[in-house]
Write a structure and sequence with these properties.
This is Alpha/beta hydrolase. GO terms for molecular function: hydrolase activity. Keywords: Hydrolase. By secondary structure, the chain is an alpha/beta fold. The chain has a single domain, classed as Alpha/Beta hydrolase fold, catalytic domain (Rossmann fold, 3-Layer(aba) Sandwich), CATH 3.40.50.1820. Helix content is 42%, strand content 18%. It contains 11 helices and 8 strands. Strands 1-2-4-3-5-6-7-8 form an 8-stranded mixed β-sheet, with helices on both faces.
Length: 271
């Protein structure tokens, strides 16, 4: 299993695809891990060098204290990973928490990115803090198991929750969440108490694709659209039958939008 020491931590990552091709880096949601993008790996590994990694404090990456799990630190982790593996400039994709990191990379390290894609993401402070803070506190005391049903509802849309063909995927992530220890509460705290990034996006000219799920129980379509209209080269796409975890719920649609966005990146820079 590949691990790398960067920015004062140790990150687990998967490196697949063509080693001499442009890199496509995937950054996962809170409560998930790098497996979240297995459908994207299948689609893109034949054309790109595909990197999926676990955030500091999650998955197989090193644990850390609450004060070191903030999004600014995690953004610097991602930047250091890109530099150490000589991936830049790369295409960067983040779902939810991974999207928070992607936006900060685009604003603060644009030289590392060719394109940026965010799924189920907001550039603002948490607007459901009163609803999510009790969940954070419960996670910090008990871990993921008692909250698994609540978290599954937040992380997936109604269509996915009711689709028998999606049951195996749901069960996998339910089991995963139930296995999370109390440290996941610290990662959740930093997500819920993050600072807004919207004002930093005004100067971003990295081509930006924001994909929203119409059934997202965490963030609204308008929050994705606000990202797209704030950056200089942005577009928002909405998937009707998807919730918060778009990379898992509607991989074909996500992959199609992502492939188009990557293909169009040269056009953005030439305009």
């Amino acid at each position: 299993m590949p691990f790398i020491d960067v920015n004062g931590t140790t990150l687990y990552y998967q490196d697949t695809g063509l080693k001499d091709a442009p890199a496509l880096v995937f950054s996962h949601s809170l409560f998930f891990n790098s497996r979240m993008f297995h459908k994207q790996v299948e689609r893109f590994a034949g054309e790109y060098r595909v990197i999926c990694y676990d955030h500091r404090g999650q998955g197989k990456s090193a644990k850390d204290t609450l004060d070191m799990l903030d999004l600014d630190t995690l953004t610097e982790d991602a930047a250091a990973l890109i530099k150490e593996l000589v991936l830049g400039p790369c295409h960067f994709v983040g779902n939810s928490m991974g999207g928070f990191i992607a936006l900060r990379l685009a604003a603060r390290h644009p030289e590392l990115l060719i394109t940026c894609t965010v799924l189920g993401t907001s550039a603002e402070e948490e607007y459901k803090i009163d609803e999510f803070q009790p969940i954070v506190e419960h996670l910090q005391i008990y871990g993921g198991k008692p909250m698994s049903q609540t978290l599954i509802y937040i992380m997936f849309g109604d269509t996915s929750l009711e689709d028998p063909s999606f049951a195996n995927e749901l069960n996998f992530w339910k089991d995963h969440i139930e296995g999370l220890d109390r440290t996941i509460g610290d990662a959740a705290y930093q997500v819920v108490h993050r600072k807004r990034i919207l004002s930093e996006l005004n100067e971003v000219d990295v081509p930006m694709l924001a994909i929203a799920g119409a059934e997202d129980h965490a963030y609204t379509v308008e929050q994705s659209n606000k990202i797209a209209v704030t950056v200089r080269n942005g577009v928002c796409k909405v998937i009707a039958n998807a919730g918060h975890s778009l990379a898992l719920e509607t991989p074909e649609e996500v992959n199609s939008f992502l492939a188009e966005h990557i293909c169009n990146s040269g056009k953005y820079y030439s305009e």
